[in-house]
Design brief:
single chain, 149 residues, mainly alpha, 2 domains
Amino acid sequence: MDYPSFSGADGEDYNKFFDKITKAFRHNKVAKSEQVEKLRKYLSGYALVLVPQTTESIEKAFETLKSAFGDPQKLLANRLKKFKLIGPYPLERKGGKSVFNLQEEWFLNAEGILYDIIQLGKKNEDLAYEAFAESNFNFIQSCFQLVCP
């Protein structure tokens, strides 16, 4: 099974990374004593800095990464910002792409981001209030007004 990579960049979901790498450790039967070394191979940037070679246990490594990158509030804010950045629903061709292709890309991007927002809301009751807040709902709905007037 392949290992995921993680740098801690905005938009990366630490919780998804944690789930995938622990699953890969189990599937690939990585001994607990080798997990920190294996983890470091797939970290980069600031995430790698936070887990130096002197880290003694995988639990300590994960605890450090979670405290730095596991804030679901920050992730939700990033997802909402990302949704705003996909822009309005395209109605005309642009950059040599047909309207259909642009609309297809728009829907795929919107679907992926909305799925992440919904999952964050489901996982955390406090986030649910924000993820499903009327202001966010109205904004998202307004993006679809051109699709379904």
